[in-house]
Design brief:
single chain, 197 residues, mainly alpha, elongated
Length: 197
């Protein structure tokens, strides 16, 4: 009887210790680890953590950013600025999709695929607005059967090279009148889609 009681006490002790240890690990409970700071680091997107990096590293992170800028002849600064601009454009696209849920349906897609496509296009052209991405998608859909070279990717490539939508469509073989009519039709369709909830 005594041996059973000792064995039962030992089992309870082992289980209690295991349960207590579960809450102390990295992923659980309110342990005092690095991730328990009460939220994400300062900043948003590419700037996350930059606000407190200097104080936490004793100033070494400032030296690192400065060295990266100097050694790359400013290219790292330009890269950060491009990433910030793309991140800002993506946030505006999210707002647009939330405000106009009928837009993806009009483009024969869903919000997730439309967002993912825009995000991929931003990697090539961080200046690309969501409106121009939507227009390129619609123009490609409307014109692709009559003008096989007019695809969304071809239009996006033209925009990335600094050409306007009209110039890009003319570069792809449309006359000035055809380009104007195509853009007007796409604008009307997109405007109607934005009104649908």
């Amino acid at each position: 009887m005594m041996s059973r009681l000792i064995l039962l006490s030992l089992l309870v002790l082992v289980l209690a210790t295991g349960a207590f240890a579960q809450g102390r690990g990295r992923g659980g409970g309110g342990g005092g680890g690095r991730g328990s700071g009460g939220g994400p680091p300062a900043g948003v997107g590419v700037d996350r953590g930059l606000g407190n990096a200097s104080s936490r590293s004793g100033g070494r992170s400032d030296d690192g950013l400065s060295n990266a800028s100097t050694r790359s002849n400013g290219r790292s600064d330009a890269g950060l600025e491009r990433a910030r601009h793309a991140s800002s454009n993506l946030r505006r696209a999210d707002d647009d999709l939330n405000d106009h849920p009928g837009l993806p349906r009009a483009l024969h897609t869903n919000a997730n695929d439309l967002r993912a496509g825009y995000q991929a296009a931003l990697a090539t052209n961080p200046e690309l607005t969501f409106g121009n991405y939507v227009a390129a998608t619609r123009l490609g859909q409307n014109l692709g059967s009559r003008f096989p070279g007019v695809t969304r990717d071809a239009i996006l490539s033209g925009l990335a090279s600094g050409r306007s939508l009209g110039e890009t469509l003319r570069d792809l073989g449309l006359s000035s009148d055809e380009s104007k009519a195509a853009r007007k039709r796409a604008e009307a369709e997109i405007k109607a889609a934005r009104k649908n909830k």
